[in-house]
Amino acid sequence: MKPAKQSLLALAIAGVSTFAVAEPASQAFVPLEVKGTSAQSEATGFIEGQSLSGTTRNFFAKEKWKRGGGLTFQKGDGSREHTSSRDTWTQGTILNYTSGFTQGTVGFAVEGALYNEIALEQGRGRIAGGGNRTLADHDGDAVEQWSKLGLGNLKARYSNTVLTAGRQNLNTPMVATIGNRALPSSFEGVAIHSAEFTNLTLDAGTFDRVSPRTEQSLTRFVSEYGNRGVSADHVNTLGAVYKPFQSLEASLYATQAEDLWNQYYLGLTHELGDADLVALTTSLNYYKTKDEGASKLGDIDNNTYSLSFTGTHGAHSLTLAYQEVDGNEYFDYLHETNGIFLANSLLSDFNGPNEKSFQVAYGLDMAKYGVPGLKFSLYSARGWGIDGTHYRSTGYTDVVNMDGEHHYEYGVGTSYAVQSGPLKATTIRATYTTHRASENQADGSLNELRVVTTVPFNIL
Fold first, then answer.
1. Domain ranges of the chain
2. Alpha-carbon distance 304 to 197, whole Å?
3. What pLDDT score does 118 carry?
4. Where would I find the H helices in 122-182?
5. Cα 57 versus chain centre, distance
6. Which of 23, 95, 143, 284 has the largest count of CB atoms under 10 Å?
7. 366 close to 329: Cβ distance less than 8 angstroms
8. DSSP letters of 367-400?
9. What would the CATH number be for the domain defined by 1-30+235-460?
10. For residues 91-100, b (16+ Cβ closer than 10 Å) or e, as one string?
């Protein structure tokens, strides 16, 4: 790691220490203690604790590429045509059944979820091949309606520790369910989550397949930005979340994508003050990635971090975030996961080789003005110094043309959550994002409008 980066990380950690002195009441030490209660001892039974619920989500997005960018799609005669726009309009519904845990020293439970999606926009030219938004057949026509088993697992619980085997959701810094489409992804494997201590949780898991957001079949794990022709047979992850003080949380994880990379993560989040007056949240995220085993993506040696400060006063919040990639390849993560806990992961991930980026964001919570559930947001982010000319390996060959690339992005958004009545917890979110890029920056230049409505429901 370069000296400048060591200095910045030291400054962030020193800042946390300074806050501890400045606000001792919020820095009360939390001793590591075994929980006095056991979740399994409170089990009500397989049938007695069951539930049947779900959500239905309407996802609409309109993308418009600028400066000659776009996609190609297959026409009816087999030829391909360029288009500068893509429309997505789908309805995704999840029906989730969860049993209660059986009583006894070790309890057992099951979970299953059926996923269904309807393509409301089916025009071949409009969906432009579908991509990871609308499921399309080999001719490029939208699949009108499709279903799959999204979740299906068996759980065993001892005390406050749960072992889950089968298709499941997960949320860790490297293997995380991504839910930014009509349906989310999920993972096939075995995981264990232990919460035996009051302020420490442990996670471990091994997975061999991912269920993508817009596909019916299971697939192997591949890289988001690297050569999609190579995959990992297994992904293994291990980590912990520890809260030594009331206002400080630390996360430490390691993940192996077999024959692709080993990746390590450190996260620190510190909170100070009272949001009704003035509060400050400081977040540091750091990833170290190194090629592993057969190195199917070639040599990888990447250090990436983000440091953000969010000040809150009443209804208003202001965020300043800096992010940097130290490596001649992208900062990369697993496709069909949300395994990128970085401050400047927006429409663009701002993760190009040797890229630096800075974001300014503003948020307004109208609950303080008598309209609970209504929020507004505004942000602007810039990335510069993208340089892949020193790349000499095999997995990210497109970066060699990146020499001084730059880009910027800004977005506005609003969301509303229904507070009461039969539609309570229904959310409506609308965002408009603009991204502009230099010639060889990976994301291109486009505008995107999204309107997403999510309605939860309970049957049992």
1. 1-30+235-460, 40-63+73-219
2. 31
3. 98
4. 124-127
5. 18
6. 284
7. no
8. GGGT-TTEEEEEEEEEEEEEE-TT--SSTTGGGG
9. 2.40.160.10
10. bbbbbbbbbb
Can you tell me which residue has the tokens 């009583």?
103
Q: What is the pLDDT of residues 233-246, one digit of tens each?
A: 999 999 999 999 99
Arithmetic mean of pLDDT over the chain? 94
Helix (H, G, I), strand (E, B) or coil at 85: strand
Strands 71-74 and 145-158: unpaired
Q: Residue 259, by phi and psi: left (phi above 0), alpha (psi -120 to 50) or beta? A: left
Q: Quick: pLDDT tens for 314-328.
A: 999 999 999 999 999
User: 40-63+73-219 sits in which CATH class?
Assistant: mainly beta
- What residues contact residue 56 under an 8 Å CB cut-off, 6+ apart? 91, 92, 93, 94, 454, 455, 457
Rounded CA separation 407/221 (Å):
29
Give yes or no for a contact between 416 and 367, defined as CB atoms under 8 angstroms apart: no
Please report the pLDDT score of residue 8 as a whole number: 43
pTM of the model: 0.93
Say how far apart CA 267 and CA 181 lie, in whole Å: 26
Token reading at 369: 């003005």
Residue-wise pLDDT tens digits, 21-62: 334 336 789 999 999 999 999 999 999 999 999 999 999 999
d(CA 434, CA 380): 10
Judge whether 1-30+235-460 and 40-63+73-219 match in fold: yes
Token pair 């697939």 is found at 219
DSSP codes of every residue in 181-233: SSS--EEEEEEEEE--BSSEEEEEEEEEEEE-TT-SS-B-B-BSSS-TT--BS
pLDDT category of residue 77 using cuts at 50, 70 and 90: confident
pLDDT at 14 over 80: no
Distance CA 410, CA 381 (A): 6
Report d(CA 452, CA 412) in Å as an integer: 14
Question: Between 6 and 120, where is the model more confident?
Answer: 120
Question: Are the beta carbons of 337 and 343 closer than 8 angstroms?
Answer: no
What contacts 50, CB < 8 A, 6 or more positions away? 97, 98, 99, 100, 460
